[in-house]
Amino acid sequence: MRKARGTAGGDPASGAPNGTVGRREAAIRLSQAALAGVAVAGGAAFFAGRVKAAASAPAIPDWRVPAAGPAARAYAARGDDAARNVRRVLAALGGMEAFVRRGDVVLVKPNVGWDRLPEQAANTDPKVVAELVRACRAAGAAKVVVADLSCNDPRRCFARSGIRAAAEEAGAEVLDGSQLRMVAAAIPGAADGLEVFEPLLRATRVVNVPVAKHHGLSRATLGMKNWFGVLGRGRNRLHQDIDRTVAELGAVFRPTLTVIDATRVLLGNGPQGGSLDDVRAVGAVCAGVDPVLCDAWGAAQLSLGPSELGFVGEAQRRGLGTADLAQVRELGRT
Amino acid sequence: MPRRTLSPVHLALVLLLAAAVAAIVLPGRRTREDPADVLRALRASRGPTLPAAAAAGAASATPPGRYARDTLADVIDGAAEAYLRNGFVSAVMATYALDGAGATLEIAAEAHRFERAEGARTQAADEAPPRAAPVEGVAGASSDGAVLIAVAGRDLLKLTVLSPGEGGPEALAAIARAWRKEQAP
Prior knowledge:
The structure holds two protein chains of two kinds. Chain A is α/β, with parallel strands linked by helices.
């Protein structure tokens, strides 16, 4: 005798007898399995796409020149003439020709963060930038690009800082934030996922030329911190753990040369500054192939020891350079 | 039917009502009497403004970009924090082009509104060039010839000469005068 559906001994919900699966239950289970399969396949495709995109993002090149062979890893020159200071440190390093070959595309990366005048010392001195451009051109560079992503209106920053006029006059192509195309790049660490401006990736040589100045969070902003200026939207999140992040950027971005501008030094209320009372005319420039050493020298112009800057210590621990100031050769004052 | 006399309480209520009506109607009438006041009030209610190119003595101006608290960082990334601390509400920005001697003079213009006048004044003090001097004929404005800062109530105007050339100071003053004219008294 056939048992009626739903009778005792069966599953009242499915209407199936014990140990069997009814059509309704089977349909539900099949639907669930299908949904799970679609979800898994979709998720796999999504993450595979992301991994592929991350893998396809270009790596940041290493712009260092192997075995350039300067006697010291950094030189510093002092005097009232900023351009002359640049020429002296470059000459001591073996000339720009030791770093820039004929046909190179050189990116000069100043700090043009703020809508400030040169005398307010919130940006790299335009004379320092212009002299570096001239040196690169004289060494045979096919093209010299001066670029930065400002914190304030980029056109205003490049106009007020005097950098656009000075660098263009020296023969550079000057690109402010409104003219820069942002592209993905493979940046490990806290800056993962942030974009960089395209001319950076196209450059065959990079000269990092920050101004030495006070910074409210990191105490000082120098060479390694200056890499914030190549990063696109979202970079503010890097201020969360600034010492570690700055050292990470120092490990990612390996410039051909670091040139610290201490023509005028902003001693307080940085990074934006504003008051001339916070500015001291130091009249010095340091250039070298060791970014950590250059930052240590820059810190000294702010009366800070290398051990007082967390990112300098962190960078040294990572083997990015030395903070031993005895290795900076002072060329004296002219 | 007995005739009722007006009691002092009724009289007081009637007078109170009349005073309330007068308080509402009279200022409204005054505002409506002057179309310029109406225009200024309307402009003030819709946010900071920049004068039209013709009014500012410019040949042209770019379409204005408008920014609020959550979009200010789109245009001034790191500097936005200081504005927000000072009570930034909204901004409008444009670039004026003026025909100068042999070259076009470009001037970046931005008008920012703050929650309070104090915020505008604080931001103005922070932005003012080191050697700024008062601008003749424009109340609350100072300039060093390349940058002009002006404050009117809760609004801050900042003008910057972008391209080197002659006529910068005069152009800044002309735009600032046109802006000041449009602000609520």
